[in-house]
Amino acid sequence: MINTLTLNPAIDLFINTPQMEAGRVNRTTDSDVQANGKGVNVSFILQRLGIANTALGIGGGFTLAYITQQLQAAGIPTDFIDGGGITRINVFTHVQTSGQEYKLVNPGPEVAPEAVVQLLEKLRQLNKGDQLIVSGSFARGVAPQLVVIIAQIAAERGVDLILDTSYHDVLDALPYHPLLIKPNNAELASWYDLPADIGANRLVALGRDLQQRGAQNILISRGNDGAIFVGKHVYSGNAPDVAVLNTAGAGDTMLATFVAGMARGKDDATNLQYALAAGSDTASKPWITDFNNLDRLVANTHVIQLDQ
Questions:
Q1: What are 94-108's pLDDT values in tens digits?
Q2: DSSP state letter for 168
Q3: Catalytic residue among 252, 267, 281, 295, which?
Q4: Distance (Å, rounded) from C-alpha 260 to C-alpha 51?
Q5: What does the alpha-carbon distance between residue 223 and residue 307 come to, in Å, rounded to a whole number?
Q6: 252 is catalytic
Q7: Which domains are assigned to the chain?
Q8: What is the C-alpha to C-alpha distance for residues 7 and 73, in angstroms, rounded to an integer?
């Protein structure tokens, strides 16, 4: 069974507006309320790809109730712990006249210590062969070092662990041999105290170093520049051109599509190609992809092997 874990879920309010001017009423053309959080997004994408999964996490209040309701309505079982407070609401605004995107992301509520204890007990009930995908930031009260404890539990239980979080503590989790980690280029550079704009060759070298430290596979997202996969071999692919509407969820879509491909035995190059196309399609939509345009985008996504 695949399980996603979201430790700072959110409701995202997406707004599309002709203009954004200070000091005046800006009338919008449309909006969308979305159950969100990186792990939540991964659950929705996996479900759309026909991959059964359960959404785990910590949250609270009427906003968490809405998130779990939307997941369950999509056929995704949920098992969230009430950590107190009210799960956050974020605002993403696309301005039509300028093409600019504004992202207002809140920190989330303070999580009660007993909720973290309950979470770890729940993770100790996972079974050998299960998969756990830890995605996104942690709410206040959840220390970044928790990622190391989660990795240790996963290793003890024989659970395949996938990590997509920006914390430097990911490096301390690598000796537990996570199946896959997915930093973006800026996150990966920050782990090594390097500037965010390092090139592909350096990213590949860092990916190989992460393998030496214990990670089995590394998927490095690069925004408009596509992605690099470092596994048995190294592959690089472009992001197909789309009219960008909302980039929130693009990386989550890429990860979930790649995980689904791994579950179905796709080769790494083909898997990267489809994952990049799906991520770009999400960036062109108010929310996540419905996969209707995937064939066209796949045709414009090209993957090459870098270590021949």
A1: 999 998 989 999 998
A2: T
A3: 252
A4: 7
A5: 22
A6: yes
A7: 37-87+110-305 (3.40.1190.20)
A8: 21
